[in-house]
Amino acid sequence: MSGAFHYLPILTDDTRKHLCRLRIVLVKAKKSTVKFVIDCTQPVDDKVLDVAQFEKYLHDKIKIGGKTGSLASSNVVISRDRTKLTIASPADLKFSKRQLKYLSKRYLKKQQLRDYLRVVAASKNSYEMRYFSISGGDDEDEE
Q: Does residue 25 or residue 65 have the better pLDDT?
């Protein structure tokens, strides 16, 4: 930044205000990230779902700008805990949470788990995999 001041021999009040505004804009323009979480705790604890395979599937299938395989160039990072996947994306990329739900449901269908598991929004930036709740069906009167 010191090289920029060589061209301004006299700093008037107007130019100082302009430089202060410029610095404020640069500070506000920092890249923020959006994080989405897919919680697979229930199926992983029951050893129904493998998080490593699910992570690889998402890594291969997520589309950025209509193209798969461009996660690294778009600064999208998929990280894995024992039971959770976290997808971090730059805010200016406008990464779709809905795409994660679609790909999660598609993975469950591929693994033939779609009849037992569903993907539910747990909060604004997270999904959770839950089992379908099946009632006993004892509503009929026996004769």
A: 65
Q: Average pLDDT over the chain, rounded to whole?
A: 82
Question: Nearest to residue 58, comparing CAs of 71, 44, 48, 49?
Answer: 71
CA dihedral angle for residue 90, residue 95, residue 101, residue 107, rounded to 10 degrees: -80
Kindly list the domain boundaries of the chain, sorted by start residue: 33-131
For residue 85, the tally of other CB atoms under 10 A from its CB is 21
CATH class of 33-131: alpha beta
Q: Say if residues 40 and 129 touch (Cβ distance below 8 Å).
A: yes
CA dist., res. 30 & res. 32, Å (int): 6
Tokens standing for residue 56? 């690889």
